[in-house]
Structures are given as C-alpha cells and as structure tokens.
Design goal:
about 210 residues, alpha+beta, Pathogenesis-related Protein p14a, 5 helices, 7 strands, disordered N terminus, signal, CAP_dom, CAP domain-containing protein
C-alpha cells in the first residue's frame, strides 16, 4: 500500500506492491517531489555491497550501524544516478528513531498514531526551527523479519515501489534521518526526509515564487 500526503490533508492512492509475505510497507510523501528516472534495478556503480554492515541483519545494539548502512546504500544508489547525496540531519534522526521505537508495540506499520503525524513529529524534533510551514517532507516505513531485515535488502525493497523510489531518489528532499528498532525477530525502519523552505523577505515579493 502507498499513501501520498498532499499538503496537510491525507489522500490515499493505489500503489503497486510486489508480493511480500514477510514485509509490510508504507509510504508518506510530500507533494511536489521530483521523480527520478524509473528503474528498479540496483545500481552497479558505487555498489551498496561496499557499505559496511549493509548485508547484516541488525542485532541487539546494532541500530547505529544499521542507520549508517541504510544511508550509505541510499546514497550509493543516488550517486549511481548522478543525484546529490542526502545529508544526515540530527533533528530528522530524532523524529525517525522516536517513531521507530514507538512502532514496536504495533503489529502493523501506520503513519499516524493518535495525533502524531509525520509532519508533527518532524516539527516536534526541531527541524527547520520546529515550524511545520518551514519545510517539505517525506517519510518511508518498512519492517522485515529475520535476515531480510538487512539494510541493503530493505532499501532494495523500497526501490521496487515507484512512490517510495520517488522519495528516496528525488532531487527536492536533501536532508535525512533514519530510525531503526530491532526485536528478536523483526527490524523496523523509519526514514524521514526533508528540505527547508526558502525564507522570503517581506521586502522582496519577487522572491516569493518557488
């Protein structure tokens, strides 16, 4: 299932999802994301296999290594397509990790728990000064069991879904934070992406166009 957020009002749209008996996927993306050339193949240049721990299922205490591996694999895929690398952001990581930890008690991946939405979580973490109107955002969730929870396999699964691929391989969102929560059997991933909107001076109305 894919979900796309347009502004602040959620709109559900169908998204093709290949058969995945042990995975549940969810996507939330902000409007206006630039699409990358469609492809589902894993790039050979800057191979993700070169990323440390990318082929290992995160174990206890391995969240930090898994976060680094996911970012390394995503950026390897971006470099292979001549896209700029995503920049790690502490505020986005705080939002992503907090939500990954919170999802541990839920059997299904959901984008909203109570009043907690992706936009509110990112703002509460202090991104762009905590002003929801000051940033565009995207969020991608994933959960795998056993060895399929390895970072490289998780990213490969995301890239097989057009909506998710547009978020991870788009040109607009430049900052990223990754959350990872592991149990004895499952690994839950949350990837929050964002970009700060330009600050427009009231004395320069000609700069208000985006």
């Amino acid at each position: 299932m894919g979900r796309v957020w347009t502004g602040t009002r959620p709109t559900c749209v169908p998204a093709p999802v290949p058969p995945q008996p042990v995975r549940k996927l969810l996507l939330i993306a902000a409007a206006g994301l630039a699409a990358s050339p469609p492809t589902v193949a894993v790039a050979s240049a800057d191979s993700p296999s070169a990323c440390a721990h990318a082929d290992e299922r995160p174990g206890a205490g391995g969240a930090a290594r898994a976060r680094d591996a996911v970012l390394c694999v995503i950026n390897a895929e971006r470099r292979a397509r001549d896209l700029p690398a995503l920049r790690a952001d502490l505020h986005l990581r705080r939002a992503a990790q907090g939500y990954a930890d919170r999802l541990r008690d839920h059997g299904m991946l959901v984008d909203t728990l109570g009043s907690s939405t992706p936009q509110r979580r990112i703002a509460a973490a202090g991104y762009a000064g905590g002003d929801p109107a000051a940033f565009a955002f995207g969020e991608t969730l994933g959960r795998n069991t056993g060895a399929s929870g390895a970072p490289a396999l998780r990213v490969r699964s995301w890239l097989m879904i057009p909506d998710t691929r547009r978020v991870l391989l788009g040109r607009r969102l430049r900052d990223v934070g990754i959350g990872v929560h592991t149990t004895a059997t499952t690994t839950t991933y949350v990837v929050d992406l964002g970009v700060r909107r330009r600050t427009v001076s009231p004395r320069s109305p000609s700069r208000s166009r985006r």
